[in-house]
TrEMBL record:
InterPro entries: A-crystallin/Hsp20_dom, HSP20-like_chaperone, Small_HSP. This is Hsp20 family protein. Belongs to the small heat shock protein (HSP20) family. It comes from Pontibacillus yanchengensis. Pfam families: HSP20. Residues 38-143 form the SHSP domain. The lineage of its organism: Bacteria, Bacillati, Bacillota, Bacilli, Bacillales. It comes from the Bacteria.
C-alpha cells in the first residue's frame, strides 16, 4: 500500500477539524466552535450556529426554562446568554419546601460581518433562536 493510499484510509482525528477553517470565520471563532463541538458547551448551554448566506443564527436548547429566566446582552461583538432559574419544590407529605437555584452563562464572540442592531431573538418550545442579518457588500457591475 502506498503512503498516499494510507493517508486516504487514515481516520480523521478531531484535531484535523481545527484546520478546516471556514473562509468567512476568523481563526479564533473557528477554534471556539471546534472546542465547543469537541468538549461540549461550557456552563451547560449547548449552542448551535448556522452561518447562512444572508443570516447568522445561534440556537440554544433550553428545555424547561421560561422566557422570563433568559437574558441576552449584546456588547460590541459579543453576545452573552444567561439563564437564572429559581424553583421552589413543596413536599406536602414531609411538610418541607426546598429552593433550587441555577445560573448558566454562555458568551459567544460574533463574526464581524453582522448587522448587530438588527438582531432578532425568539424563544419557542424550549429553543432560543438569535438571528443576525449579514452586511451586504456593494455589487459591482463588470464592464
Amino acid at each position: 500500500m502506498s503512503s498516499k493510499e494510507n493517508k486516504e484510509i487514515r481516520r480523521r482525528s478531531m484535531f484535523d477539524q481545527l484546520f478546516d477553517i471556514h473562509p468567512n470565520r476568523s481563526l479564533l471563532d473557528t477554534m471556539d466552535q471546534f472546542f465547543t463541538d469537541a468538549f461540549g458547551a461550557g456552563g451547560g448551554l449547548p449552542v448551535s450556529r448556522q452561518d447562512g448566506k444572508s443570516h447568522y443564527t445561534i440556537e440554544v436548547a433550553l428545555p424547561g426554562v421560561s422566557k422570563e429566566e433568559i437574558d441576552l446582552e449584546l456588547m460590541d461583538d459579543t453576545l452573552r446568554i444567561t439563564v437564572d432559574r429559581q424553583e421552589s419544590v413543596i413536599n406536602d407529605t414531609a411538610k418541607t419546601m426546598s429552593e433550587n437555584k441555577s445560573y448558566l452563562e454562555r458568551t459567544i464572540r460574533l463574526p464581524e460581518n453582522l448587522v448587530l442592531r438588527e438582531m432578532k431573538a425568539r424563544y419557542d418550545n424550549g429553543v432560543l433562536k438569535v438571528r443576525f442579518p449579514k452586511r451586504r457588500g456593494k455589487k459591482v457591475d463588470i464592464e
